Amino acid sequence: MKKKVGIVVKEDAEAKKKADQLEHWLRSKNIDIVAKENLPPGRRIADKDKTCAPSDLFCVFVLGGDGTFLSAVRWIGDQHIPILGIKFGEVGFLAETVEENLFSAVEAVLNEQFVTEERMRLLVFVTLKDKEIACETVLNDIVINKGALARLAHIDTFIDDHYLTTYSADGLIVATPTGSTAYSLAAGGPVIHPAVPAILMTPICPFTLTNRPLIIPDSAEIRISLGKKSSDIMLTFDGQAGLEITEDHTITIKKAPCPVSMITLPDQHYFDVLKAKLRWSGGRF
């Protein structure tokens, strides 16, 4: 059966040039191609790209950094379509390989010399006075963030309907293990292996220094609302789309039923990738 693949490319001259070469090479092998236009992240949820990947794709190749990868994941949606990231950019925690290995990696995938790793996602519901206004799925995180001139955000947080705390902070990150190496890590959160069934909550610059990052089971449901007189607060989904929220909004977060199928290639090890990205010492003494 003839294969059809998707290609998502970063807005970058070098990446686009390599993508053109890849498309020509794929067509020479009688592979059908669906190229997705990679739109920049939209500030408003209403502005988000609503297109969806064809259900008959064999896989999706992403040429770019983590932002491009997250855009491609949103394009795939809840479909079980394997995805492979090829790094073209400064940040590449989600990429499985680099530009120099592009054609050998793609050939291995086309020859089905790969396995997939299921990465948990979060399902996020936003209601306004009991009316659902948004339902999003994220691979990395959702972030509640105050504006540059806003006062501290006061974030009432419940886990399984049990009151946890009110974070007084610049914001709050709720992340998957995959997202633990993204914004949460920069905010002082721990690195969590993708196979660990957990959800990570990391306050951003908390006023109370004893408010530390918290790891909870992935079976838990988190409910969040803002304290009174909150203003200039933004909720973002994987850094790709967002909406302004007030004390009238309620955010509910839980494990999504459909994970992302990330392609892993032979001889790639999570801890080797982690050490390289974080520039840890990898030598033996």
What does it look like?
With about 280 residues, the protein is of the alpha+beta class. It folds into two domains: about 5-120 and about 260-280, Rossmann fold, CATH 3.40.50; about 120-255, Probable inorganic polyphosphate/atp-NAD kinase, domain 2 (Tumour Suppressor Smad4), CATH 2.60.200.30. It is built from five helices and 19 strands. The chain has helices at about 15-30, 65-75, 100-110, 185, 270-280; strands spanning about 5-10, 30-35, 60-65, 85, 95-100, 115-120, 120-130, 130-140, 140-145, 155-160, 160-170, 170-175, 200-205, 215, 220-225, 235, 240-245, 250-255, 260-265. The strands form four sheets. Strands 8-7-18-15-10-11 form a six-stranded antiparallel β-sheet, with no helix packed on it. It has a six-stranded antiparallel β-sheet with strand order 14-13-12-9-16-17, with no helix packed on it. It has a five-stranded parallel β-sheet with strand order 2-1-3-4-5, sandwiched between helices. The chain is elongated.
